[in-house]
Amino acid sequence: MKHTFKTVIDQDGFVRLPIRIHGSSKRSIKLIGIVDTALSYTIIPPFACQLLNLPTFNKQNPEITVLTGSGYVQAPLKKATQIEILGSQIRKRNIPVLCHHIPRGVTILGHTFLKDYKATFNWKQNTFTLEEQK
C-alpha cells in the first residue's frame, strides 16, 4: 500500500509540515519543516543536531561544501535516524542531513527526505501531495 500525504500550501507559497526528527540516542524533537524540492539536502538547525546528538554520516568526509543563495558554505553532514511527518505514515530512516543555520531556525526538507516520493504542487487547488513511489 502506497502512503500518501496531502496538505494545503500557505498563502505565502510555502508548504510547512509538522515533523519529528529522531536522533541516535532515542531523543526526538518536533519542528516545522519547509518543503524545497530543489534543495539536495535536508537542512536541520545546529541546535537540533546537538540536542539529538546526530552521528556523522560519513567519517571520511564529516563536512561538505554546498552552494547556497549566499554562496558556498561548509557544513557538517550528519545522519538523522528518522524523520517523519506528524499525523501521517510518511517517514524516512537514516537520512543524511546538513547541520546549518537558516534564519529563524528553519528546517528544510530537501531531496534526501523527498527522493522516494512524488511531490506534487497543485496551485489551482492550493494543495501539496507526497505520494510514495514503490
Q: In words, what does this structure look like?
A:
The chain is mainly β. The protein is 8% helix and 51% strand. The protein contains two helices and ten strands, in the order ββββαββββαββ. It has helices at residues 46-52, 111-114; strands at 4-8, 16-22, 28-35, 42-44, 63-68, 71-85, 91-99, 107-109, 117-122, 127-132. Strands 2, 3, 4, 5, 6, 7 and 8 form a seven-stranded mixed β-sheet that branches. The chain has a three-stranded antiparallel β-sheet with strand order 1-10-9, with no helix packed on it. A hairpin with a 2-residue loop joins strand 5 (63-68) and strand 6 (71-85). The longest helix is centred in the middle third of the chain and has 7 residues, at 46-52. The radius of gyration is 15 Å and the shape is globular. The mean pLDDT is 92.
Order of helices and strands: EEEEHEEEEHEE
Q: List low-pLDDT spans.
A: none
* Number of H- or I-type helical stretches: 2
How would the global form be characterised?
A: globular
Percent helix: under 10%
The count of strands amounts to: 10
Radius of gyration equals: 15 Å
Largest sheet: 7 strands, mixed
Return the average pLDDT rounded to an integer: 92
**Class from secondary-structure proportions:** mainly beta
Percentage of β-strand residues: over 45%
Distance between the termini: 9 Å
Structure in a nutshell:
This protein has helices spanning 46-52, 111-114; strands at 4-8, 16-22, 28-35, 42-44, 63-68, 71-85, 91-99, 107-109, 117-122, 127-132. By secondary structure, the chain is mainly beta.
